[in-house]
Amino acid sequence: MKRSTVFLLLGSLCASVLAAKGKQQKLSPDDIGHSDPGKGVNFYSIEKEIALGKQLAAEVERQAKIVDDPEVAEYINRLGQNLAHNSDAQVPFTCKVIDSTEVNAFALPGGYLFVNTGLILRAGDEAELAGVMAHEIAHVAARHGTKQATRGQLANLASIPLIFLGGWAGYGIQEAASVAVPMGFLKFSRGMEQQADTLGLEYMYKAGYDPTAFVDFFERIETLEKKKPGAVAKVFSTHPPTEDRVRHTQSEIQQLAPLPEYVLDTSEFHQVRDRLAMLLRERKGDIKDDNRPTLLRRTPRGTDTNGDDSKDDERPTLKRRQ
Ligand code: ZN
User: Fold this and answer.
1) How far, in Å, is the centroid of ligand 1 from the Cα of 54?
2) What's the pLDDT tens digit per position in 203-244?
3) Which of 26, 36, 133, 278 is the most buried (most CB within 10 A)?
4) From CA 52, how far away is CA 42, in angstroms rounded?
């Protein structure tokens, strides 16, 4: 342990003594974002961690299809930046969208967050999406990737292109359709997942979202999965949100002082989601082997859900939220 870590350690100690334990006092948004969940044994300096993440992210981008549509990319990046800004993370974030129908998101050490199109399409509103992204940001803030590496896998680091799984339900990139990065690393420990759940709820809450949306998303996916086993997210069924996890999440929500109002949703989210569905549908006309017919259903070809009068099918008018 070194340098300014001591300060941060003290800070987070105070915060946790005040907040979590014993006291009935609930957390308010001002209490959040000033602690250092990344403290603890770690052989990586922040700088090294960022460099590692950058390298891994480059590998991901080489292998995955990154959605470069400016509207979609900009929106997701902005959403991620806002959540990161409300977190404890000490690294700058980069948020990109991977063209994959698997419902997933993951974060690499050092602040490289990837969100699958499947996740955006399956989220019911912006708060649900934010909840999953906040969970991933929490993994970064708590430096789970490099801590895990420090714990036992250090020898492997040099030889294997590692991917630190940040799959919010504990599943990972190797299962995300279009990516096949060799994986030398495992999922995070249960304790880490639980910490990411706790912190993620705090971050989304501080950013103004109703934390219960995180649980709503579990339920939504579970329902979809029951209706069409395997169709929504086959990986979800192998890493379900256990009762334990849901219970923990709900009790953590109780630790947060209710706010008079939350950002439940934005129209921008729906515009981006619709646009994404349209882009995928259009592309699908060219690509035969893509499988998820469910994607087609949301916005059938030619359907103008916005009611706008755009002459050009490819460029719907996207209205900005004020
Ligand atoms: Zn996780």
Assistant:
1) 20
2) 999 999 999 999 998 888 888 777 877 655 534 544 557 788
3) 133
4) 14
